[in-house]
């Protein structure tokens, strides 16, 4: 991956991080309103609240993984597999910019 490709991926990571943080903030506010106003009575509302909590957890994990990827940029280790130490392919990083593992290690970890 050349410097220009790395910069494109970094910009994409930063933009996606900002979007995810905005979504997380929206979910936090929505859940706070539910708590403040005592919403959560009845099956449909409980389902929606549980869904919002799951989405919030997912958004938090995504924010953390993107922040870690940006940290790896700062450290100079971005694009290096954390398991085997080989370079992660440009195609994988374009598809999943916060990837920590090369495709082979990710497949092994998924088994």
Kindly list the characteristics that best describe this protein:
4 helices
Quick synopsis:
By secondary structure, the protein is mostly helical. The chain has a domain at 3-79.
Write up what this structure looks like.
With 111 residues, this protein is mainly alpha-helical. The chain has a domain at 3-79. It contains four helices and no strands. The protein has helices at residues 3-36, 43-75, 90-95, 103-110. Helix 1 (3-36) runs antiparallel to helix 2 (43-75). The model has no long low-confidence stretch (mean pLDDT 88).
Layout of helices and strands, plus pairs?
Blueprint: H1 3-36, H2 43-75, H3 90-95, H4 103-110
Helix pairs in contact: 1-2
Order of helices and strands: HHHH
Number of DSSP strand runs: 0
- Overall geometry comes to elongated
Query: Helicity, in percent?
Result: over 70%
The pLDDT mean sits at: 88
Structural class by sheet pairing and helices: mainly alpha
Unreliable stretches, pLDDT < 50, 5 or more residues? none
Measured between the Cα atoms of the first and last residue, the distance is 28 Å
Main pleated sheet? none
**In DSSP terms, counting alpha (H) and pi (I) runs of 4 or more, how many helices?**
4
Proportion of beta-strand residues: under 5%
Rg on CA atoms, Å: 18 Å
């Amino acid at each position: 991956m050349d410097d220009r490709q790395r910069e494109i991926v970094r910009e994409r990571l930063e933009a996606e991080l900002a979007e995810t943080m905005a979504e997380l903030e929206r979910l936090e506010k929505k859940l706070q309103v539910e708590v403040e106003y005592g919403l959560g009575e009845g099956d449909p509302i409980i389902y929606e609240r549980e869904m919002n909590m799951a989405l919030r957890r997912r958004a938090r994990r995504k924010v953390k993984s993107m922040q870690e990827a940006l940290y790896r940029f700062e450290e100079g280790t971005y694009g290096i597999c954390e398991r085997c130490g080989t370079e992660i392919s440009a195609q994988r990083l374009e598809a999943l910019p916060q990837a920590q593992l090369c495709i082979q290690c990710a497949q092994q970890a998924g088994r």
